[in-house]
Amino acid sequence: MEVGFYAMLRQAVGTKRVAFDLAPEATVRDLLDAVGGRFPLLKPLMWEPGGGLSDYIKVFVDGREMRHLQGLGTPVPPTAQVDIFPPAAGG
Q1: Rounded to two decimals, what is the model's pTM?
Q2: Cα(48)–Cα(43) distance, rounded to whole angstroms?
């Protein structure tokens, strides 16, 4: 599956989209673990010190925010469109 990265996350990975080869029954947690394994600089941006996902990171699976689906347990089949957004600021 290809995962889209945006804003400062894109700068950290060096490209807009990155391919990941995950098992068909993979979840958002599995994907984020794979992202952190490949791009260690992203780990502290994605995860809180206690191990929970940062409230500021938004993961969309097929256009829907994973927190409105099954959270970190949301399935991400190989055909899923996944996008990861960093915190946004502005005013």
Answers
A1: 0.92
A2: 9
